[in-house]
Structures are given as structure tokens and as C-alpha cells.
Design goal:
alpha+beta, Prolyl 4-hydroxylase alpha subunit Fe(2+) 2OG dioxygenase domain-containing protein, 20 strands, 321 residues
């Protein structure tokens, strides 16, 4: 349903819907180039992302029906398509974006912008433009959004972001102006994880594996503890379920869910391996030892030289829970 949000921008006034070209140019003068996250940095690089943006405190939505009726209706519709209950979800206005001709955003994954965020909702407002299709991919499947050619009428697109779920890009706008409001989708119950991986995960094979392992524990052919190495390294302080990265978090949640269902315990741990024994000559330890200053070596007692060799032949190790 086409509803005018009645967006008011200081210095411009109310924006028309559909957006007129003269107001689009005025809006660009008030906007700033949108940055993006790269590692721990936030940078502006128009070869990766070329988009104008405005923060929510720089404009005002004056139509109460938009926030009281339209957005709740869109969220309910979006949640149905994402397979979750809308009663658990809030939508928080994040940015207003404007894509002019040549604007785009290369393939990327969203980052968590606030606590409880699990997805992104983009509401494309009434404007005429060409190109600007969103390409979203997950688990080997790809969709182009919207899936129709006319883009003059308002529409919305949404996707999961959590645990490196959905990768997406905005194709280059070829004409006109793509005018959108973006919202963060927030989970009201942060202890319950929402992600595309959750929706598409099939636990059948993992349950089968745990049951087989349980039988092998009983007959003594397998140990009752196994270690699965994560992709990333973590400090003791950062080793928490909620702070794991990407696939580490997704896999850990699956192992915890199915393991506890079948009465296995799940732990996160830092691992150190410790090995003792004589060092083989081919390992390079003797070369390391012989490379020591000969004068210092002559001053060492036989006992001190033996201790030094043992130190060269050891690898640190232990398992801490």
C-alpha cells in the first residue's frame, strides 16, 4: 500500500512522494557519503559503496500512520516470510539512503549495529529508477529482490544478517533515484538466536552422529570427550558463546543444541598441547642447540646442557575449562 511517510528535512522542507528530481538533488546536498565496515575500521570508499545517507536525527517522519500502522504491517509481513513470530520483533529506524545514477554497494555482509539485531529491513519509497536490484545469497541459493521489473511503487526487502548469514549487494542504479529507509530488525528476546542458518538447519545427520558416538563410547571404541577446533582464536575474556564469530557461532549453537538434546555437555575452552620427550636429530633441535655461542656452551655444566636440550624438545600444552 502506497503511503507517504511525509519526510521533512530541515532546509528543504517536506519531500514529495514520488521523489522529484529537484528535491533529490537538494537532498544530496544535505547528505554525506555512506561508509562501510572493513575489519575494525569504518571507511568511505566509493569504489565499494557509493550511496548518500542521512541519519534519523537529521530528518523527521511526520505521518503518524507510517510508524503506527505501515511499519508494523510491513514487519508482520516480513516476519511471516522469514518464518518467525512478529511478536518477538521490533523495527528501529537506522538511515535514509539515496542512490543516484552510478550508485551501488558491492557484495558484503551486514554488521550488528545494536544489541539484539538479527536482520535488516529496507523500505524502498516511491521513486522512479532503473537498476538498483538487490542480489542476496545464502547456503548456495541466490535471489534478486525485487523479483519484478517496475520499481516506481514502494516495496520492502529483508534478510537475516546474524552469524555471517546472508551476503548481499546493491547493483548499480542506471537511471533515476532509489530512495529508501533502512531499519534494524531487533529480537525482543536476545537469548533466543534468530538467523537464516537456524531456519535452514537440518539436525538429522548431527543427531545420527551423536547417537553413533554414544554407542561407541559404551563399547569402548571411542573416547567420551572430543575437541572440535574453531576457525578463530579467542582470548579467555572473549571466549563466550555470544561473542563467537561467523561459522564458529553457527556451528557451536548447532553442537550445543543437538548435543544437549541427547544428553551431551558442551563447553568452550582454550587448548594448549604439551609434549615431552627426546628431540630427534632430524627435528632441528640439535642445530638450534649447536648454534649457541660456543664460549657460553663451554661454561655450562653437563646437567645444564641436558636441561637445555629438554627445553628445546618440549611443546607447551594443557586443556583448560
Amino acid at each position: 500500500e502506497a503511503v507517504d511517510p511525509q519526510i521533512h528535512v530541515p532546509g528543504i522542507g517536506p519531500l514529495q512522494s514520488p521523489l522529484a528530481e529537484n528535491q533529490a538533488l537538494e537532498l544530496i546536498d544535505q547528505c554525506h557519503q555512506a561508509p562501510f565496515g572493513k575489519g575494525s575500521e569504518t571507511i568511505v570508499d566509493v569504489s565499494v559503496r557509493r550511496t548518500w545517507e542521512m541519519n534519523p536525527d537529521e530528518f523527521e517522519i511526520q505521518n503518524p500512520a507510517w510508524t503506527e500502522r505501515v511499519i508494523p504491517s510491513i514487519v508482520e509481513n516480513a516476519c511471516k516470510k522469514m518464518g518467525i513470530s512478529s511478536a518477538r520483533v521490533d523495527a528501529e529506524l537506522y538511515k535514509m539512503l539515496l542512490y543516484e545514477k552510478g550508485a551501488m554497494f558491492k557484495a558484503h555482509q551486514d554488521t550488528e549495529k545494536c544489541a539484539g539485531m538479527f536482520g535488516t529491513l529496507v523500505v524502498c519509497l516511491s521513486s522512479s529508477y532503473g537498476g538498483g536490484t538487490v542480489r542476496a545469497s545464502h547456503a548456495g541459493k541466490t535471489k534478486y529482490l525485487p523479483e519484478w521489473s517496475s520499481r516506481e511503487s514502494p516495496y520492502f526487502v529483508c534478510w537475516y544478517y546474524r552469524y555471517s548469514d546472508v551476503k548481499h549487494e546493491v547493483k548499480e542504479v542506471t537511471s533515476g533515484y532509489r530512495w529508501v529507509l533502512t531499519y534494524n530488525l531487533l529480537n525482543k528476546n536476545p537469548s533466543q538466536h534468530l538467523s537464516a542458518t537456524d531456519k535452514f538447519f537440518d539436525a538429522t545427520q548431527l543427531r545420527r552422529t551423536f547417537r553413533k558416538w554414544n554407542n561407541e563410547i559404551r563399547d569402548g571404541s571411542m573416547p567420551d570427550k572430543l575437541i572440535y577446533m574453531l576457525d578463530h582464536e579467542y582470548t579467555d575474556e572473549s571466549l563466550r558463546l555470544g561473542t563467537l564469530k561467523g561459522n564458529d557461532l553457527a556451528r557451536s549453537l548447532r553442537l550445543k543444541q543437538v548435543g544437549e538434546e541427547l544428553e551431551f555437555s558442551f563447553f568452550l575452552a582454550n587448548v594448549e598441547r604439551e609434549t615431552f620427550g627426546e628431540c630427534e636429530p632430524s627435528s632441528g633441535c640439535e642445530d638450534d642447540y649447536d648454534s649457541r655461542d660456543k664460549e657460553d656452551d663451554d661454561n655450562d655444566s653437563e646437567e645444564e646442557r641436558d636441561e637445555l636440550k629438554l627445553r628445546y624438545s618440549s611443546l607447551q600444552c594443557s586443556l583448560r575449562f
